[in-house]
Amino acid sequence: MSDNFQQRGGSPWGTPPGGGNGNGSGRGPTPPDVDKIIRELQDKIKNFLPGGKSSSGKSLILGLIIIAFVWLASGLYRVLPDEQGVVLRFGKFVKTTQPGLNYHIPFPVESVLTPKVTKVNRIDIGFRSERDSGFSTGGAVADVPQESLMLTGDENIVNIDFSVFWVIKDAGNFLFKIQDPEGTVKAAAETAMREVIAKSDIQPILTEGRSNIEIETQEIIQTILDDYESGIQITQVQTQKADPPDQVINAFRDVQAARADMERAKNEAEAYANDVIPRARGEAQKILQAAEAYKKEVVAKSEGEASRFLAIYNEYKNAKAVTQERMYLETMEKVLADIDKVIIENNGGSGVVPYLPLPELKKRATN
User: Rg (Cα) of the chain, in Å, rounded?
Assistant: First the structure.
């Protein structure tokens, strides 16, 4: 008997249909074929038990016990690390279970779904890539204008394509709170992006403002999905393209080139002003300082002349003749300092007094 049981799977009651521990595909375990199991057990029991009514009753009881064990064992199921178990009782959501070996009341009372919760899903809005179309298009991307054309805050139209990445946060809510998860995420993403674009000017959307738009859009999408209790977590919003509409893109590029020329001319003017203005201010300060120095020089010289005049005047009052002679000699010294001189003696003699012209010798030595 033990050899026959081992041939059925190494267990006294055999391996239950469906593996007895979940199939990891989101479906509940397959119920055992009770009639077939009873017939097989009865045939094997008859081989080693004596005949009679009491023997058939014992066989029936033993078969029922084995069936009960098989039924109870079918409640075991395993949740993989990238899954989350969702237990249903008569089709109604009861609880979620974490990865590992778990147990639920066997079929038909309870069943288990095991959706993948770590898989990153992606939805493209404004365009359709080869991945979305399902067939090879040579790497081409088809634009969807009804999704990508949006009105900006400064009343311009922008053609923006973006992708939304999301994972399952709560498998119970994901399976039973929303009917179309992908459609819900797409609608919420398009709504959030239009709201953000409507508050922004076109210039930052096309240039350095994309990262802020992505962050704000992700926050709005997550708020909408949390209000729906969708069980979805938005991981990233990624802008693929942001351009003016194709019909006006050439004119827009001309406008951008004109703005670039304006910015360049403005920067050159500011650079010239930054160069000229400081130099002019420096020259003005230099003139002011020179004028102040001249003023102080003239005032000091005038004060010195006045003091000298007062000193001479005081000497003149005390000795008029001596002071007059002194003033005469000093004046003549100044007048005759740079001219040729001939000294004549009035008191007899030859009349001409020879002298050594030291200033002339000094000038000749210099030349």
Answer: 55
